[in-house]
């Protein structure tokens, strides 16, 4: 069954070549770029550390002007441009996605500044015109190696990566139909988890407009429902797409069950590993590495704006799929390529994340600390505490704010009515003492025995 996907993509690529629509990436090697030694840097170019350093704390410690603090405290809209104030409130951040605290790492900052001094922002243009350089290519190679994939396509954002992939999937059906409307059994069936990220949802909707795909939504992590939908589907080409670690609920996709279904039904398995990359797995390879099923995941989408502490998105896949996506993925084709300093920083981040293994150890220690101190059975650094009404969520957020903790109340339309929540995230640069103080403050505004976690079967787009 999976071989038919390879044949289908190959046939689609041949049609694109015949139509002269096949696009290639040609990296520009910058004139003042790194020497051969710098392209293959010695270890000491990337300084790493065996434990937390003082600068790491800036990834979880923030300051906001006192007027802004007061407006937030009373839920008064604020533009955030209050000038002339010299008084600030220090808050401890429990709401960001910088899971490893890499955004403040000096080695990553130096990589960005070195590239900026040598090349400025680099050539400005889309990747297919002049924006793709040797810096981009080396970063793609690093990500492909991390994800155990043949190749990788760098995108401006994780959102753009999902959009490009979904649209490219729809193009396969259109290309194989040779300009005609595909018959029902010739269409591509896309099976999507009900709580998938907004970028997947929007990408699927755009693909659907090509009239070459059929969309099936299965109940959140419900493998019985997914199996029933797959069994009743007569289409030959099937795709299952899911978040690996769900960003608003903090639960993992049932990877082992998905792999079993993949072997039974022969579908293409696509995961969005935005919140698992660098955090999960011995080497930071993500959720697939953690569940020892990297070879069973056909395409892995991810981001460099969370645990990598930088910016950008990627699609780790085969060379064949990369060629298709870069030729038909509109959000990739029509976006300006990522600036050189950001690419250099992201590559440094990959190297630091791989070597500073203490960061992964510490974030999972903080997950353990929170679980022990609260009794709430969490299993990831994303903690979704459902409190119910908007009023309750705001009161809890404001109570934590008074205690010096930055936690935002998540309200409709991000989540359904009466499922408002506090979305708490843990970081490797939080300490045991931070968790103790935070959970003590949290216990004053929520009841740990009554709190709901994960919760919601609604198909809503999340942060």
TrEMBL record:
<keyword id="KW-0663">Pyridoxal phosphate</keyword>
<dbReference type="InterPro" id="IPR050087">
    <property type="entry name" value="AON_synthase_class-II"/>
</dbReference>
<comment type="similarity">
    <text>Belongs to the class-II pyridoxal-phosphate-dependent aminotransferase family. BioF subfamily.</text>
</comment>
<dbReference type="InterPro" id="IPR015424">
    <property type="entry name" value="PyrdxlP-dep_Trfase"/>
</dbReference>
<feature type="domain" description="Aminotransferase class I/classII large">
    <location>
        <begin position="90"/>
        <end position="442"/>
    </location>
</feature>
<dbReference type="InterPro" id="IPR004839">
    <property type="entry name" value="Aminotransferase_I/II_large"/>
</dbReference>
<keyword id="KW-0808">Transferase</keyword>
<dbReference type="InterPro" id="IPR015422">
    <property type="entry name" value="PyrdxlP-dep_Trfase_small"/>
</dbReference>
<protein>
    <recommendedName>
        <fullName>Aminotransferase class I/classII large domain-containing protein</fullName>
    </recommendedName>
</protein>
<dbReference type="GO" id="GO:0009102">
    <property type="term" value="P:biotin biosynthetic process"/>
</dbReference>
<dbReference type="InterPro" id="IPR015421">
    <property type="entry name" value="PyrdxlP-dep_Trfase_major"/>
</dbReference>
<dbReference type="Pfam" id="PF00155">
    <property type="entry name" value="Aminotran_1_2"/>
</dbReference>
<dbReference type="GO" id="GO:0016740">
    <property type="term" value="F:transferase activity"/>
</dbReference>
<dbReference type="GO" id="GO:0030170">
    <property type="term" value="F:pyridoxal phosphate binding"/>
</dbReference>
